[in-house]
Structure formats: C-alpha cells, structure tokens
Amino acid sequence: MIDFRSESARTTEARRAPPAPLALAPSRPPAGAPKSGRLQSWSVALARTVAPPFVVFAVVIGVWLFVSYVVLDAPRRFLLPPPQDVVSVGFFQAANRDEIFSALWSTTRIAVVGLAWAIALGTSFAIMMSWGRWVERSFYPWAVVLQTLPLLAIVPVIGFWFQYNFKSRVIVCVLISLFPIITNTLFGLKSVDQAHRDLFKLHKVGRFKKLVKLEIPSALPSIFTGWRISAGLSVIGAIVGDFFFQQGTPGIGRLIQAYTSQLQTDQLFAAVIVCVLLGLTTFWFFGFLAWLLVGSWHESGQRKD
Amino acid sequence: MTVQVIADETLGIAARGATRDGPSWGAGAPAISFAHVSKTFRGGTEAVADATFEVAAGEFVSIVGPSGCGKSTLLRLASGLTEVTSGRVALGEENVGFVFQEATLLPWRTVRRNLELLPELHGIGRPERRERARSALALMGLTGFEKHRPRQLSGGMRMRVSLARSLTLRPRIFLFDEPFAALDEITRHRLNDELLRIFLAEQFAGLFITHSVLEATYLSSRVLVMSARPGRIVAEVAVPIGYPRRPEQRFDPLLIEAAAEVSARLREVST
Predict the structure, then answer these.
(1) Which residues of A touch B100 (CB under 8 A)?
(2) Shared domain check, A173 and A72
(3) Tell me, what DSSP letter sits at residue B27?
(4) CB within 8 Å of A208: residues ≥ 6 apart
(5) Is residue A1 a part of any domain in this protein?
(6) Domain range for residue B229?
(7) Residue of B81, B102, B151 lying closest to A202 (CB–CB)
(8) pTM of whole model > 0.95?
(9) Rounded CA gap, A23 and A40, in Å?
(10) How many domains, in total, are found in chain B?
(11) Which residues of B touch A201 (CB under 8 A)?
C-alpha cells in the first residue's frame, strides 16, 4: 500500500508507534522506524548470505545419511560411514585426533612455505619478464613447460635428488604452484593503463619507482587471483608429495593412504574433511586479503545493488 | 634568448621554475615553438605535416581540427611523449604540465594522495607535498573531497582533480589534450571558467586541443585550425577580446564572429 501522506505525518506516526520488536517478527515494523528497519535489513542480508550454503550443507548431510543407512546395509556400511561416526571416531578419539592434526600441521607448514617461495620466485620472474621482452620470450615457454610436467612422474625424481625431507616436499609445492603466479602477475603488470604509463613517462619516473607506485598497485587484483589459485595448488602439492614420498614426517597424504589400506574409513573421511577445511581456509584467507587491499577501489570489491 | 631543445628531451620537469640553461624565460621568448614539425608513424600514417607555430609566454592558444587530424599527436610531440620525424620542437621551460583526455587518476589513491603523486615522483618531501596538495585542492574547489576515491566522483570532479594534480608542480607551460570533451555542456562551461581563472592567476602558457569551436574561442587569444590528416595548420584566427573574460562573454558578438570564422575555416578543410 502506498502512503500518500506527507513525510512529516508519517514520521510523527512512527514516533508515536510502540518500539518495534527486535526479533524477526512476521509482521512488518511501522514504516519509518529506522533502527529496527536497519537491523532487519541487516539480518535479512545475513540470512541471504548464510542460508544458501547452509541449506546445501544440510542436503549433503541428508544424502550422506541416506546412503549410509538406506543404500548400504550394515556389513557394507564401512564404504561410507555415517557423518556422526566420522566425527566421533576421527575427532573425539584423542589418538586419532592427534594423529590427524599433527599430520595436518606438517602438511600445512609445507604448503605455506612452498607457497611463499612460489610467490617470491613467481613475482620476481614476472617483474623481470615485464621489464624486458627478451626475458619474457626466453623464460615464458619454460614456465609453460613447468606447468605441463607430469607431476606424478617428477615427484619421485625430486625425492631421488633432494632426499625425502621437508625441502623436497616444498620443491614439489613450488613446482605445482609457480605458474599461476607468474601468468597472473605478468598479466597484471602488462595491463597497466596506457594513459597512466604516459603520465609516468612524462615525469621521467625510473623503472623501480614506476614499479612500486604504478605497476604493482595496478596489478594487485590479478596478483591476488594468482595467489588464490596457487594457494589451493600448494596444498595439493604438499599432499601429493607426502603421498608419494612415504618417508620423513608423515603428512595428511600418507595418513590418508594408511587409513585406506587398513580400511579405517571413519578416520579416512575425517582426514579428508580436514583437507577440505584447509583448502577452504586458504581460499577464504586470500579472498579476505584481496578484499582488504583492493576492495576499496577495484570493481571486484564493490557491492552491486 | 630561446633555448633550443631537441624534441626527445623536452620534458625534464624540474622542481618549481628551474631551467636548464640559466634564465631562458626572458621576455619575448616563445614558450612553445614548432618549426616544420612532421610526424609519420611506423605504419606509414602521416599524422602531422609541416607544423609551424609559436605560443608566447603567458599566452593561451587553442588548436581545433576535424577528429583524427593529428591534434593529439601534436600535443604528444610538444610534451616529448612522441618523437618528431622531422622538424624541431622547442620549449622555453622545462616545467610542463599535461592534462590528458581522461582524468588518469590512480584509482587506489584517495584524492589527496592523487594530488601528492607528482611532487612525490619528483622527490619532494612530505610536508611540502601536503602543502601543495592542499593549496591545489583549495584552488580547484575540492576541499572536503580529500578522502574520496576517484570512482566515487563524477566525471567533472575527476577532471578537476586531474587539473589540480597538474597544478601541484606550478607548471609554466600547460598542455591540454581535449580535457573536457567527455563532460556535459554545463560542467564544461564551469570548468572553462575555472581554467580561465587559474590561467590568470598562474600566468602559464597554454596550448589547448579541442574539437569544440566555442570552447576554443572562449578560452584563447588565438585559435589555430588544423586540416584533416595529415594535419597541417591551415589558418589562424585571433580572438579580439582581452582577459579576464566573464561567462556571459560567451555570447559576445566579437567572440561569436571569431567562432564563425574558425567554423568556416574548418568546413573548408574537413571535406
């Protein structure tokens, strides 16, 4: 219904009206009550953000339970143990929990160190490539080669060469996560607005100053895209390296293999869940970092209403 | 005395008012002089052909021409962004400001930080930088917008910030590459008036590229007409009105007459 009365009439009425209940009452609070209105729109926004993934989560759990209890009979239930068993065995039995989390910690450390190296190396390569076309021409094909190397074949070789320790695992992570950082950073550095380049050229700005004040800030959105992709890859690299090396401090990859061979599916699924959580955390972390640093000015950070 | 500078090294912008060869800014020395300047691009496109003209110190000159006639190239030649193929470009001053077609603000910097950019690039210390940004801000009527990002501003406001940014180095020569072309007429008129106000206050030499005849005549004391590509300077029309100019003088018969003359010349060369 459209209120045809004047603004002042409406606000007077709103002032006289009893305070709107704070809870999400089905009846709408009187028009013009700003506080509860804002609260409601805020909670609606929250619900809109949280509800869809929550609903999907509930559906996934439902399907899982259905398969465990209805599709599988008791002797075959170990193929997909129900979620509550996974949680209670994997996370509430101290021995299993400690085993899983110490393996997770080892894998995380490798992935983080590998990613840090990949970022340092990849960014330096990309900067050098952006400075000289001949550098790009000579090295970019090798970056592509790196990307197409069959990792499964190369991992054992890395083990031969560098022993089966922390260092070789980090090397696997770097190999797998380097390329997206190089390409995305290079793309960002080369996409700097020509008019901005002219402005810096007019003022005879040196190469290094231009890099710091123009090219890197302008490339940040692409740089973060590269980091985000590579963070996921680095986690995969840490798990794959661990899976193949079979030596040194056990990580989550080896644990998964051990659980599989011993048919300890409760623990296996708990370990997989932990891997997924690690991946999600890194993904969110880099999304958050990008939002923090470029959200205030870049299109990708703006809300579209 | 004129300092002859080869085009590719015309634009060493030093801090305020510094010159290379002593007091080159003597009376009568042209601020900008083009002698038989031609530019042919690598692909064979002849953008500018045999351009010869001068802009005196403290003079405001506009160049109009059909689109694609090489007006912007002419300005890039003057600034040293593009090198001449033949002929000679000489600037009487090193401290040159350039206003681009777009505002070219850095989107990640606030208005205030954008205004500090040029002093920063020239190694001027923070307190001095702040002070210059503040005075440029006040001069362009931008006070209160210090913390805004470029994307939060309208096109007209962005162009104001861009002008203010150039002013932070107090250039003695100002090159304008159709800075107001993308703005609506009302905003453009306002910015024209502000530009004239700054021109009178700062006394720089201005070379203004535009495709608007009325804008050209209202701003300048002389209007040069360029032909279609390859761009040649084919006519020069003097505007018989002094400065300061008031907004209502846009409709002064003398100014309209000059504009009609420019228009007629443009028609001759556009076909």
Answers:
(1) 195, 198-199
(2) no
(3) T
(4) none
(5) no
(6) 7-95+184-270
(7) B81
(8) no
(9) 8
(10) 2
(11) 81
pLDDT reported for residue A36: 57
Nearest to A204 among B12, B107, B120 (CB): B12
Strand partners, B209: B63, B177
Q: Show which of A79, A102, A120 is a domain's final residue.
A: A79
Same domain (yes/no): B46, B75: yes
Structurally, how many domains does chain A consist of? 2
Q: List the single best residue of A192, A203, A216 to mutate versus B (max B Cβ within 10 A).
A: A203
Whether residue B117 and residue A213 make contact (CB cut-off 8 A), yes or no, is yes
Phi and psi based region of residue A168 (left: phi greater than 0; alpha: psi -120 to 50; beta: remaining): alpha
Chain B residues whose C-beta sits inside 8 Å of any chain A C-beta: 11-13, 79-81, 96, 98, 100-102, 104, 106-108, 117-118, 120-122, 149-151
Pairwise CB contact (< 8 Å): B108 & A193: no
User: Is the domain of A22 the same as that of A98?
Assistant: no
**A293 and A158 in a common domain:** yes
Position A8 pLDDT exceeds 80? no
A14 falls within a domain: yes
Domain contains A2: no
B81-105: string of b/e by CB count within 10 Å (b at 16+)?
Answer: bbebbebebbbbbbbbbbbbbbbbb
Structure tokens at A60: 């996934």
> Could you tell me the residue range of the domain that residue A268 belongs to?
83-301
The pLDDT confidence band at residue A216, using thresholds 50, 70 and 90, is very high
Q: Which residues of chain B have pLDDT under 50?
A: 1-26
- The full DSSP string for A33-73 is -HHHHHHHHHHHHHHHHHHHHHHHHHHHHHHHHHIIIIIS-
Pairing of strands B46-56, B30-40: antiparallel
Q: Give the confidence band of A305 by pLDDT, cuts at 50, 70, 90.
A: low
CATH number at residue B195: 3.40.50.300
Domain contains B178: no
